[in-house]
Amino acid sequence: MKGPTVGVVGLGPMGAPVAGHLARAGFPLQVWNRTRQKAEAFGDRAVAHPGDLRAEIVLSALPDVDQFDEIAPDPVIRDWAGHGTTHVVVLSTTSREKAGRLAERLGGFGVTVVDAPMSGGDAGARAGTLSLMVGATPKAYRHVEPVLRSFAATVEHMGPPGAGTVAKLCNQVIVAATLLSVAEALDLARRAGLHGEQLVRVLQGGLAASAVLEAKAAKILQREYGLGGSAANQVKDLRYAVALADELGARLPQSRRTGEVFAELLGRGLGGEDHAAVYEVLSPGGGGEPPPG
């Protein structure tokens, strides 16, 4: 297929698969990454500097708006706009406030910001089965929708700019609480001498079944926390959710406590590990034997 030229900045566990799906879908593609090697894997689609992008739609798969602001200050946005960039799509989880500030800054150059945070983790990114929650005007949504559907199975227009960000924070509230519950259950099972894999099988056959259990139980059972979604990002997202709750008068009691437990991971130097490492907070001294499997 042919379509608008798409630029992807940030080729981490999520951004690289997204760029791969775009290329396979036939979109003209350009990519940039701070670590040059990751961009060079895309051959002549790689550019040396963010300002070199010549793309109508730029997707940011960076961790947050802060990193986007670093690599795309006003002079870069001015260059993009001068070379035909009309939309920037933020795929990362951020706060409604930061999404709004970015939209205001880029709007000054005639560039429209769409917030479309991703859910589904690195496995969903590789499989092209991500869920995207989109905040945009109807016109902007129509413009970027074909691009988004090339790497996501579920694309929902949640409402005006900022609505996608709020939906993702709701998603993160559920993910964090569920993951902590899975870790607590497997810790309890280990202490009682249960067979961990057997317990997971029976849980998956009942009401306790969840995508979180399916995706993260093996990491906990093996105590191997290769990066999917980082603990540091989980803490960041919960802080954004609590800040939004404070703004709106929501209590969020469970999320506040969950955030405190995840924050312990950062104190242990595990912020760069997969958020399933929350199990290490619950196990004795961060050690002990893994659940029998």
TrEMBL record:
This protein's name: NAD(P)-dependent oxidoreductase
Judging by the UniProt lineage, the source's domain of life is Bacteria
The similarity annotation says: Belongs to the HIBADH-related family.
Domain named 3-hydroxyisobutyrate dehydrogenase-like NAD-binding is located at 162-282
Q: Does the keyword Oxidoreductase apply?
A: yes
Stretches assigned to the 6-phosphogluconate dehydrogenase NADP-binding domain:
5-159
Source organism of this protein record: Streptomyces rugosispiralis
Which InterPro entries does the protein's record reference?
6-PGluconate_DH-like_C_sf, 6PGD_dom2, 6PGDH_NADP-bd, HIBADH-like_NADP-bd, HIBADH-related, NAD(P)-bd_dom_sf
What is this organism's lineage?
Answer: Bacteria, Bacillati, Actinomycetota, Actinomycetes, Kitasatosporales
The UniProt entry, under SUPFAM superfamilies, shows:
6-phosphogluconate dehydrogenase C-terminal domain-like, NAD(P)-binding Rossmann-fold domains
| Keyword field | NAD, Oxidoreductase
